[in-house]
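Mods, move this if it's the wrong board.
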Amino acid sequence: MNTRSEMLARVLAIGFVLYVSATVLRRLDAGEGRSTAIETKSTSQSSEVMLNHFYIVLDGETIRDLRTSEFLLGEFASVDTGLPRFTPAGDMSEILYVRGRSTYMELMGPKNGFGEPVGKCGIGLTVESRGEISKVERALDRAFPGQAVSMLVDWSRDVDQPVHWYHLVHRVENAEHPNLFLWINEYHPDFFAWLDPTLDLSRLGITRARFLHPRFRPMRLLDDVVSLTVALPEPGRVALGKQLGALGYSLVSDAADRLAWRGRDIRFDLVPVTDQRSGIISIECRLTRRPEVAREFRFGPRSILRLRPDGTAAWSF
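Not the wrong board. Structure tokens:
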């Protein structure tokens, strides 16, 4: 989805800070460190706040390789250029949406229409029951008093009247990890009725699968994204971990170089930033079937997608 373009217009209209690039210059308390992340460990065994998609801005060479890859476009997944027509990738495409069953990827080049620079990334989470987003807002407000903001985002392009798209909640401050934005959404039923008016998918409610069902290709390899590894400075790992804990994720690993948070269908590994790695640096995927042999595909100077015979894949960026 072209999430940020619509979100940006609404955020500007109501005077909020731009969610990706702007920050309120507020520091963590002096005592906040790894122990804070441990203290926010969720008592829930399975979060109902699930991964919707992630985005990452890649260099020009990598995005060129991706939009011309016969494997990516023809074997790995259904790939399009987004709402509302989901047109196939072309020679000039700067944004590629790689669709799975319930999750998807948004891979962008440096000339993307959002004006985001290489290295920017974001994680979009979601709830799938009506009204759950209000619980998310309250949970974030308890963890970060006064920092949880919410709004109803409309789709307004190519329509006579704006269509309710989704309810959005996010933390307004992100000074600890300015290159990474985390938000949570709840789809509005009106969006599905407008998007796929000829399909009766009401049995799927407001789930991720309802949005992706017409676009998912089960004969291709990608099933879903199941984990993300994110490299952040120490304050960023603490702050992101605190958000995940507030959303019901459980801290399952507290190693010195890796904090792992697990929800119902996704795992986040938070690792230290280095000169060579920052933001979303790799993902793990579940495949629709087991490849007969291991395969490896390279895109640009350092992105590598590895298929494994056990039915999983690892993609480093």
